[in-house]
Design a protein that fits this description.
By secondary structure, the protein is α+β, with helices and mostly antiparallel strands. It is built from three helices and four strands, in the order H-H-E-H-E-E-E. The mean pLDDT is 92.
Length: 149
Amino acid sequence: MKQEKGFSLIEVIIAIGVLSGVLVSISSMFLLGGRQVKVGKTMTQATALCHDIMESFDTRSFTALYVDLGAASTATTHTVFSNVSGSAIEAWQTEISRKLEGGVASVAITPMGAGTPNFGSATGIRINVNLTWNELGRPQTVRLSTTRF
């Protein structure tokens, strides 16, 4: 007479426990991966928006750059925000809000040159574009900077 061999109940329970642990670990990696993909997509959108804002200044002359942003020729620094009514970059707020939760852009310009320059006497202008938003409950920021001569 043949004796049939199989797994005992204890062996089956241990195997199911090990399999459950592996599956929980793998599923948590999928959740983490999905979160990273979303953060990466949002970061790419924010960087593209910053580049678009920065490129909108490329067509302006040196003087028109600070005048269009609302700075006086005697000013030594000036900042504008996209969420302020009447701001020079207010038109960007609709696109920012559509793509980024709680997103706000700011553009800060600073004159460069000998001594303590103002915009009227500057030989260059430093442009800083900052875009901030909330991603998964945490504040995020993208900053781009350039200098115009």
